[in-house]
Write a structure and sequence with these properties.
Keywords: Oxidoreductase
Mean pLDDT: 95
Strand order of the largest sheet: 3-2-1-4-5-6-7
Protein name: 3-oxoacyl-ACP reductase
Pfam families: adh_short_C2 (PF13561)
Structural class: alpha/beta
Largest sheet: 7 strands, parallel
Radius of gyration: 17 Å
Number of helices: 8
Organism: Thalassotalea eurytherma
CATH class: Alpha Beta
Helix content: 40-55%
Family: Belongs to the short-chain dehydrogenases/reductases (SDR) family.
CATH architecture: 3-Layer(aba) Sandwich
Length: 253
């Protein structure tokens, strides 16, 4: 195995692992030797992902976690210590979208949900992950933001606000802990064919959204996850505080 993508015996925490990026990343890291603690609010679905990964011979523990709860995020780190003894890598991937609508149409409960899951979920995750990484001499964290965190996102204002906040948390934390050997970055995908997108956009809308990218289509989940693997690589030791767009060229226009 190429050493750049060798995660042998690295203990990795992944939230939102029942589907989409989290599920695929869990599977790919397991193939590369990682030991996994995976979680999701969808208990049965994340357990099924864990069972599938375990059947391949990988070390994995699946659990329920509501990332909007600091106690649940702490419990995930505690379980990693109980099962594997440390936390080398954490991926704060869990997130939610909302129905399309202009700013004046966004209701208070939508804003509350976006910030509870997409913002607090990242901060709570990092709070407990960083605490452990400080005690063991370092680690790597990847937060999942969005292209909506780098620019305007018409009809998705609450989501954009939350994902901008993820970038603010990422950059701030990266500076605060760089000298403690903790790398913290964010990935910012364009619309990708995960359930988060396919559940709110029919095939015609997906086609129209894809036309916004110079590459002419939406991303496949594998294309985003491949970038995540490179950002998490144990050999990628000098990248921190970066928010990487995986966008088919959208940000180049």
């Amino acid at each position: 195995m190429d050493s750049l993508l060798d995660f042998t015996d690295k203990v990795v925490l992944i939230t939102g692992a029942a589907q989409g990026f989290g599920k695929l990343l869990s599977t790919e890291l397991a193939k590369r030797g990682a030991k996994l603690i995976i979680s999701d609010i969808k208990a049965e679905q994340v357990q099924a992902v864990g069972d599938s990964i375990a059947a391949s011979g990988a070390d994995v523990y699946a659990m329920t976690c509501n990332v909007a709860s600091s106690a649940d995020c702490k419990a995930m780190v505690d379980k990693a210590l109980e099962v594997f003894g440390r936390v080398d890598i954490a991926v704060n991937n869990a997130g939610i979208a909302h129905n399309f609508g202009t700013i004046h149409e966004i209701e208070e409960d939508v804003m509350d949900q976006q910030f509870a899951v997409n913002v607090k979920g990242v901060q709570f995750g990092m709070k407990h992950q960083i605490g452990q990484m400080l005690s063991q001499g370092g680690g790597t964290i990847l937060n999942v933001s969005s292209m909506a965190g780098l620019g305007g996102a018409p009809l998705a204002g609450a989501y954009a606000a939350a994902k901008h906040a993820v970038i603010g948390l990422t950059k701030t934390a990266s500076v605060e802990y760089a000298k403690q050997n903790i790398r913290i970055n964010a990935i910012c995908p364009f619309f990708t064919l995960t359930p988060m997108v396919t559940n709110i956009a029919d095939s015609e809308l997906q086609k129209n959204l894809g036309k916004r990218a110079p590459i002419g289509r939406l991303a496949e989940p594998e294309e985003v996850v491949n970038t995540m693997l490179l950002m998490l690589s144990p050999g990628n030791t000098y990248m921190t505080g970066q928010c990487i767009a995986v966008d088919g060229g959208v940000s180049a226009v």
